Amino acid sequence: MTKSELIVALMQKHPHLQLKDINLIVNTVFESISSSLAENNRVELRGFGAFSIKARDPRVGRNPKTGEQVLVSKKHIPFFKTGKDLHARINKGRKA
Amino acid sequence: MQHVTFISMETVTRATLVEQIYQQVGLSRKESAVLLEDILETVMLALEQGESVKISGFGTFSVRQKGQRCGRNPKTGEEVPILPRSVLVFRPSQLLRAAINHETGDGGEAYGDE
């Protein structure tokens, strides 16, 4: 599923809304999550999961093409932890 | 071995996102809440069916199958099998990674997005 397919699915559920509004809603949600993370905030959506930021220490990496050593500086990466309900739904039909 | 530290200041919840929809789109708070829930539900439904969900500029959620492996009860040291399971993996887009590192996101690293 892509963002546009998500928008189509939402259009079907809310036929009274305009495409541009649904578009704006979807963009607002994901942009809010992104900007919250950029401000070092954690985003927790019960049942779905939580987005947080992890820090990666600087390390010496290698250019995979040339084998040359390069310094990879300290950076932050977004991390998603699946919520319990969603994890259960994905594993539906399996033994616990 | 890599050191991992958590940094967190505030926790953003559904209420914050509903408020954003309310302000940006001008729907009622109630309807904004319904829309947010519908977005999450639609994404979860796709994942439940094993489908990946790709939100451009944000990232990709995909379901990965894990085989059975041997685990250990950390308290007793006892060996226990970990049954095959599905896990959800989120791969952030290059744009989101850049935003978090306060970069512009238009240059640099060669490895691809999604």
TrEMBL record, chain A:
Matches recorded under Gene3D superfamilies: IHF-like DNA-binding proteins
Keyword Membrane among record annotations: no
Keyword vocabulary terms for this entry: DNA recombination, DNA-binding, Transcription, Transcription regulation, Translation regulation
Pfam families in the cross-refs: Bac_DNA_binding
SMART domains in alphabetical order: BHL
Subunit structure: Heterodimer of an alpha and a beta chain.
NCBIfam families linked: hip, PRK00199.1
Family: Belongs to the bacterial histone-like protein family.
Protein name (database record): Integration host factor subunit beta
The organism's taxonomic lineage, starting at the top: Bacteria, Pseudomonadati, Pseudomonadota, Alphaproteobacteria, Acetobacterales
From TrEMBL, chain B:
Pfam short name (any one): Bac_DNA_binding
Domain of life: Bacteria
UniProt entry keywords in alphabetical sequence: DNA recombination, DNA-binding, Transcription, Transcription regulation, Translation regulation
InterPro entries (alphabetical): Hist_DNA-bd, Histone-like_DNA-bd_CS, IHF-like_DNA-bd_dom_sf, IHF_alpha
Assembly and oligomerization: Heterodimer of an alpha and a beta chain.
Functional summary from the UniProt entry: This protein is one of the two subunits of integration host factor, a specific DNA-binding protein that functions in genetic recombination as well as in transcriptional and translational control.
Identification of the protein by name: Integration host factor subunit alpha
